[in-house]
């Protein structure tokens, strides 16, 4: 896990581009130039800790240079196929990626199992190749005008290299709708994100971007497999995904919540280790409803792990500016603060940890998948019926202490009067289109990315459509985004075996009936773990990692509300103070849970203050 940088123009005088994101890779910071191009690398050493594996890395022939962020876990297997043709100088995956590209060009991407963002520069042909992993675990942002091209792992690096950036107002509206800025947009008009599963070639102003993988290509390929065959195949894939992600030359562990995802990972880690696994569990003040430390202790004892219970007391007042700084653009999921603190504390014991991100999307863990099943049963009821019920459900007050069930029920009933794509978008969205227009006093024209992705999936199976849409939108722009930003802020690497692309392909290829079956979410995972972990772990209800927003808004964030959501601040940003005031009243009265709406506005104001004054 590192930071990569490259550009084909002279850096501004006294530029700090090389050190501005040094936390991504404090072990080595190097810059080298080749013709018009300059490449730089911030290295966090994980595999092959020697100086010879530092980057930018040049091929033995001297014609190619690579900068790479991430891990290709099956690099040893790929290397075996290359050793007859190339003289390897290191034991790193970086060198394997470079020679595999020289051997196969863009076809090399088909071989890689892992997370990556990298570029290879062909010096003789003056051609730059770049790629991002299939799920978008590692970030890649770029800037292009008629003559200049620059890329990096973080927006703040490009801000240091190019001047005159302008705010992307479409991205602001998208942020308020989804709590993140979806790729390929960024908060700046001139900076784009390379989308997951895409590669590019750039030469003398010409940029060509191509998609190289899509989970939709696997839909229905193994629909006729029996449950026994499915379990056998899934067992193999999970075991191999975890095994590969345990390769490291530094101390490694696993995040353990006591939930089904992290328990699955621990089970397979234990199978592949001859020593106790390091496990790390997060607990925090005010989180009684979401406390899983006791369940994590049961799992740790069951597998005799070297267990660490990390209890944090996050100071949101101090952490909010840090969070906004590391995201470079508005980001509205407050769980990111907890991940920042978890990785900061875990760094005292290890440099790498496996985590269960993506398990809900792949195996059917979110309440919205249960909602999709329910919709299938009642979709024949006329929409006018649900529209007539909406006014009555709006009268029901919501729980603002952190229990989202009532809010979800109200959202679900309200959405039933809409077309299915808009229904799904309502389930995962926050500010409505009407509310965004009211907030800015004018109609906001922006691309509703989630709708577009949903409608492009060639399946009538609502579970498959929602799951793939989540993978392409919510997972990459939300969970993977904060996972990378917050862990890298602490020079820490997080590995995600449950979203190994082979597992995604397989789960997409079988019937969605196996995601939720016999009233059980994550049916296949629970079936696999039966008899291997305590039954209370398998049968426990889903909790999730959520901060105590109700408590934060009353205490830590009260000062931010007073200043950041004041009439002066709100109107300075061209927003409607009367509407913001109404949000506060609704929340404080308990009528509606507006915690994340208010949080997103606070974050937006903090971003303005850090970047635009």
From TrEMBL:
Swiss-Prot/TrEMBL catalytic activity: L-aspartate + L-glutamine + ATP + H2O = L-asparagine + L-glutamate + AMP + diphosphate + H(+)
Positions bearing the site annotation: Important for beta-aspartyl-AMP intermediate formation: 357
Amino acids binding L-glutamine: 93
This protein's UniProt keywords: Amino-acid biosynthesis, Asparagine biosynthesis, ATP-binding, Glutamine amidotransferase, Nucleotide-binding
Gene3D superfamilies: Glutamine Phosphoribosylpyrophosphate, subunit 1, domain 1 (3.60.20.10), HUPs (3.40.50.620)
Example of a GO cellular component annotation carried by this entry: cytosol
Record-annotated active site: 2 (for gatase activity)
Coiled coil segments of this chain: none
The Glutamine amidotransferase type-2 domain, residue ranges: 2-205
One Gene Ontology MF term: ATP binding
EC number(s) reported in the record: 6.3.5.4
Record PANTHER family: ASPARAGINE SYNTHETASE (PTHR43284:SF1), ASPARAGINE SYNTHETASE (GLUTAMINE-HYDROLYZING) (PTHR43284)
Organism: Arenibacter echinorum
Broad EC category: ligase
Name of the featured protein: asparagine synthase (glutamine-hydrolyzing)
One GO term (biological process): asparagine biosynthetic process
Pathway the protein contributes to: Amino-acid biosynthesis; L-asparagine biosynthesis; L-asparagine from L-aspartate (L-Gln route): step 1/1
Record-stated family: Belongs to the asparagine synthetase family.
